[in-house]
């Protein structure tokens, strides 16, 4: 859930599924018609020789609470974090990424992987319960269901206790949520802003219905941050099969991944929230301690990469560079896969040159058109040597990649044109062998809960399936 132009609940709320599916298809067709009849659509940049076009420094910048590290110390720190990375020159990759994204590496962080809804929601609510000054929360989905009400009640409780709560929610992602739900939050004193309202009369100016806020950011007191793929919805009330002994599919929640971050990198999450608020709302936020001093609390070196329409395609470029620099392995889980030709070719090239490329896709999806768009790439992937898997039991919503067991990313961005071009997105890149090992362990667990797709069997699928794939592929740009 929380993808692009609509929302759906795969296990419950049948009418909502139909409404969301129809809305997504209607909007996709409308965007297609507008682009075809009025002007050229926005496009992704030429990245065919991205590395050669960049003026990268010899050593990447590593920011700390006391300023940037001198080059020798930066090199030493990177070598410590990725000492067992196989054949990968992560110093060069990190320098190229900085030149492409404008975002430095940030040292001294504690980064905790959170798997599935219950663990993530509990960690977020625990942090919220301990808030003393403010809570900044940005999300695509904030549902008016049992979990959403529980989350909202806690936020209202904190607001009444004197902690300022500020919320950014997406206009499409909350389309089915009643006005009364948000009124109760406002009446409690919470400040809210709707990102790109569907109704153009709500906010005068350019109507950007195709541009959505797909980020998920929570910052508590400027000291604890969360980001990743998880929205606030009942689908996250239960865990998936991931590291679980559950057998009943009726009890399975969505499979997703999130991060809890402490340390200097939290300030970047905070800046992104405040920037979005300033762009979307004329209502200024109260003057609070949004940027407390943040000491080093861990050993993780991270880069926070954010992109939005009209920016410099930062996430797209970061993925492009990581794929082309991969030496041994690319292991990806991604729910919505509809890349453009350039970045797809980077992925296929990696497999052709002997990199172990494995991708876990969903076997079921909340968005049928995107599901079939993803499947339309299977033949190309399999023929190039990519290993393709489909997750069993749960809806897959995770957006994670680990390359060469040392370069890892978790975020909101799907591997598709919509995320790279049309949405506000955020990804956290971690350069760390120990963290990469944990990411690899999680990926192997997902493989155990997946079925591998073989080319010979795949080619026997029905003509009806092929037609669905063909049609979805034609709309991939707009989905």
The number of distinct β-strands equals: 19
Please state roughly what percent of the residues sit in beta strands, choosing from under 5%, 5-15%, 15-25%, 25-35%, 35-45% or over 45%. Answer: 15-25%
Shape: globular
Kindly, what is the distance between the CA atoms of the first and last residues, rounded to a whole number of angstroms? 14 Å
Quote the average pLDDT: 90
Low confidence ranges: 1-22
Major sheet size, sense and barrel closure: 17 strands, mixed
Number of helices: 16
- Helix and strand composition category: alpha/beta
- As a percent range, the share of helical residues equals 25-40%
Backbone CA Rg:
21 Å
How does this model look, in words?
The chain is 38% helix and 21% strand. By secondary structure, the chain is α/β, with parallel strands linked by helices. Helix 4 runs antiparallel to helix 9 and helix 9 packs parallel to helix 10. The chain starts with 13 loop residues before the first helix and ends in a 5-residue tail after the last helix. Mean pLDDT is 90; it is low at 1-22.
Give a quick precis of the structure:
The chain is α/β, with parallel strands linked by helices.
List keywords for this structure.
16 helices, alpha/beta, globular, two-stranded parallel ribbon, disordered N terminus, 479 residues, single chain
Topology:
Layout: H1 14-37, H2 50-53, E1 62-64, E2 67-68, H3 71-81, H4 90-101, E3 105-115, H5 116-129, E4 134-139, H6 146-160, E5 164-170, H7 179-187, E6 191-195, E7 217-220, E8 224-228, E9 257-262, H8 266-280, E10 300-307, H9 314-325, E11 329-334, E12 337-338, H10 341-352, E13 356-362, H11 368-375, H12 378-383, E14 387-391, E15 399-403, E16 407-411, E17 415-416, H13 417-422, E18 425-431, H14 433-448, E19 450-453, H15 455-458, H16 463-474
Parallel strand pairs: 1-3, 4-5, 5-6, 11-13, 12-17, 13-14
Antiparallel strand pairs: 1-2, 3-9, 3-10, 4-7, 7-8, 8-9, 10-18, 11-15, 14-19, 15-16, 16-18
